[in-house]
Amino acid sequence: MNLRLIFCLLFLTHSLFGQEPSHKRIARHIEKLASDRMKGRGTGSPENAKAADYIASHFKKYGLKPLGTNGFYQSFTAKVRRVVVPDSLRSASNVIGFLDNEAPNTIVIGAHYDHLGEGRQGSSLEKEPEGKIHNGADDNASGVAGLLELAQYFAKNDVKEPYNVLFMAFGAEELGLQGSRYFLNNPTLPLDKLNFMVCMDMIGRYNPERGVGIGGYGTSDTWPAVFKDVTSSVKFFTDRAGNGGSDNAAFYAKQIPVLFFHTGGHPDYHKPTDDTEKIDVVAEEAILKLEIVLLEKAMQQPKMTFTPVQ
Ligand SMILES: [Zn+2]
């Protein structure tokens, strides 16, 4: 093989596969977001705002168009309701980036980036949570890492998909889906142009016995055609319901078809021990590759019709 051919092949390989999800980048994102320095990304904290900045800076790097109300940010006031605290009103933001493929309709890929901070906003399962950093590596630094990897992939793959893609990192999910609900009540693009929404919340603790759960299979009659003949190196199963678990429930309530990716519960859920070293980033990479296959197949289909799940 001559040298020119080798260079040519190297270039091709790089441009075709260079932007595929990578477990090394996934690990870097999770280490950053779930480190003790981020103090659990509690709503209203400076560290929560730092996490939002981290996401926005990556959206910018990938060349996404800001689609918040202040650049990439859509700010709102979140309310702590589950515990009584003097600072129950807290500033929060969604981070919103748009991949404009000049298509008539748009798909949404979302993940929440907030977590429980230092245990002073309710819903911790620790006995005495106050003052303990709830790192939230699985919940939901894993989902944010997935969001960033998918944003990079679709922005850099040199393919103009038949739909636009709205990438959303939601704030204040842990306070009751407040970020996704705020967006849906104050949308920055017309909701009737949304085709479907894909949510990732806790995709870092793959259990080969259980497999990856994919909820929302019953929310459109189109999903069976999308899943047909799809295989993956990770085990997965579908579940018809789309109205529980995370921000997908807010989209479901607006009659938008959804998919919800989740690797299942574990003893560290909503405890200070939900830490980075317990994340299976290699499995997460495989889950994201499965998502890409499903998303690319779904984007070959006409705009979906919503089906309520009984
Ligand atoms: Zn979560």
Structure description:
- The chain has a single domain, classed as 3-Layer(aba) Sandwich (Aminopeptidase), CATH 3.40.630.10.
- It has 310 residues and is of the alpha/beta class.
- The N and C termini lie far apart (61 Å).
- Strands 1, 2, 3, 4, 5, 6, 7, 8 and 9 form a nine-stranded mixed beta sheet that branches.
- The chain is globular.
- The longest helix has 20 residues, at 137-156.
- Strand 4 (106-112), helix 4 and strand 5 form a beta-alpha-beta unit.
- The chain has helices spanning 3-17, 23-33, 46-61, 137-156, 178-185, 223-227, 248-253, 281-298; strands at 65-66, 73-79, 89-99, 106-112, 164-170, 194-200, 212-215, 236-239, 258-262.
- The chain has eight helices and nine strands.
- Bound molecules: zinc ion.
- Zinc ion (ZN) is lined by residues 112, 139-140, 173, 201-202, 246.
Quick synopsis:
The chain has 310 residues and is of the alpha/beta class.
Helix/strand order: HHHEEEEHEHEEHEHEH
pLDDT averaged residue by residue: 95
- Overall strand count: 9
Supply the CATH class: Alpha Beta
Distinct ligand kinds: zinc ion
CATH superfamily: Zn peptidases
Choose one word for the global shape: globular
Q: How far apart are the first and last residues' alpha carbons, in Å?
A: 61 Å
Percent in helix: 25-40%
The helix/strand class is: alpha/beta
Q: DSSP helix count?
A: 8
CATH architecture: 3-Layer(aba) Sandwich
- Low-confidence runs (pLDDT<50, min 5 residues)? none
Share in β-strands: 15-25%
Number of domain modules: 1
Rg (CA only): 19 Å
Query: How many strands, which pairing sense, and closed or not: the largest β-sheet?
Result: 9 strands, mixed
| CATH level-3 fold name | Aminopeptidase
